[in-house]
Amino acid sequence: MENETKTQKNGVALMVVAIIAMVMLLCAVVYLYLDGKNKDQEIEDMTQLFEIEKEEMENEYSGFATQYDEMKIHISNDSLIRQLDREKQRTQQLLEELRQTKATNAAEIKRLKKELATVREVMRSYVRQIDSLDQVNKQLARENTRVRQQYQEQTKVVEKLTVDKQKAEEKVALASQLDAAAITISARNKRGKEERKVKNVTQFAVNFTIVKNITVQTGEKTVYLRITKPDGEPLVKDPSNTFRYENVPLEYSAKKYIEYDGEQQEVTMYWDVEEYLSSGTYNAYLFVDGVMIGEQSITLN
User: What SS3 class is residue 262?
Assistant: First the structure.
């Protein structure tokens, strides 16, 4: 009896140990299952983070490539443009490498992230450089504007001086020219009397006074008389009788040589009528040294 009881106790003890072992085994299995699931979740979470980071890096690389194109628009330095082109190509190459890299490749993502930091710093250096060039260009533009304004002001001064000089020269030229005063033109008949009827006119007489002028060079002077008919045609004996006026040859009706000594001098010039005259206004013009010194007119019936 005692042995049987002892045997029963031993069986119960073994059963308890077996149950405890099974419970522990079950706990271990559950723990391993849950631990594995947590690790899978962590891996999935990390992969999602890498995907997001990879996408952000791609956007930044792409943005830098675009920025290089925009920066070239505002500069004209060929050497700097070539440098920007090289950096753009390098950025595009890194972008392509990133696109071909899987999000699970942590080592490659890390490398490209370091490269991105370098690209970012290079971009900043070019931004600073271009900004500095822009400031220099603005300063040069301001300086050019200032110099241009000074040049324009100086040009105006020179132009004014030139005009003043020309006016002074013109005054000197005018002062050194002969001038005729008290000009009269009369028509005469065959008896030498003044005549107003055109059919009776046989001669024109032009009287004038050469004004005193001590600035004019003295010596022999040639006075040209040009008489024009009512239709504007000159009265001439020979079409080859011409003189120069404002670089144009003009026909003259008569000419006279005078010896000018700087003093006032009375002069009379004549034109003998040998052609048909029509009624109207006749104009007489006087020229000396290529300058018109006076004019007068008469109207005949």
Answer: coil
